[in-house]
Design goal:
mainly alpha, 2 domains, two-stranded antiparallel ribbon, 11 helices
């Protein structure tokens, strides 16, 4: 049976993931539930994503990851959670700098994109529309690990003191050979215009 890819959620909502129920642990002791999933069981990127999404501490997340051979983790974090999003996106949605840094240290790719080609850097910025948190620190962290600022349309931050425009000026359109912002549809640009604060625009400009 052929499976069709679901439409991209306009609110950038991630597919929910949950830690498995634990027989001998309190349901609210999420840190212990996560670390109990460690070796000798196999590393599971969805378990890692669930731990991040459900608010486990950075220490517990690190303990879970360090329970496994590093090569196994580095390979595992390359997979998409539920076939849609990289595990890094769950740390970005939570706006957890410690989680983001931990995953990047485990060889998560700073320029990774989801199943609809939305890059991690753009996701982190846009998601603040619904989470009402400042995305500056996670954006700085991604840029520090090599995220390409050009995945966000350059005309929205090149003159970083100016508020970004919802529609691009005629003289600032992407050249045909530039593919870094091909993912950015009109509704994405509207969200970016709302969420690209001055600090983020400055760090994009500086990183470029």
């Amino acid at each position: 049976m052929q499976h069709t890819r679901p439409s991209a959620p306009k609110n950038l909502r991630l597919t929910p993931v949950y830690l498995p129920p634990a027989t001998f642990l309190p349901a609210d002791d999420l840190d212990s539930i996560l670390t109990a999933q460690g070796f000798p069981t196999e590393f599971d990127v969805e378990t890692l994503a669930a731990g991040i999404a459900q608010g486990c501490s950075v220490g517990a997340i690190r303990e879970y990851v360090e329970n496994f051979p590093r090569q196994q983790v580095e390979e595992g974090v390359k997979g998409l959670v539920k076939g849609c999003h990289p595990v890094l996106f769950y740390a970005l949605e939570r706006n957890c700098v410690g989680c983001v840094r931990l995953l990047l240290e485990q060889r998560c790719e700073a320029n990774v994109a989801d199943n609809w080609s939305v890059p991690a850097l753009a996701f982190a910025i846009m998601k603040s529309k619904w989470s009402v948190v400042n995305p500056t620190e996670v954006a700085k962290t991604l840029l520090g690990f090599g995220a390409e600022p050009g995945v966000v349309p350059k005309d929205m931050w090149e003159q970083f003191l100016e508020p970004p425009a919802i529609t691009p000026a005629n003289d600032s359109d992407e050249r045909p050979e530039e593919q870094t912002t091909i993912w950015c549809e009109a509704h994405h640009r509207r969200i970016l215009a709302e969420t690209l604060n001055l600090s983020v625009r400055y760090f994009l400009h500086k990183a470029s």
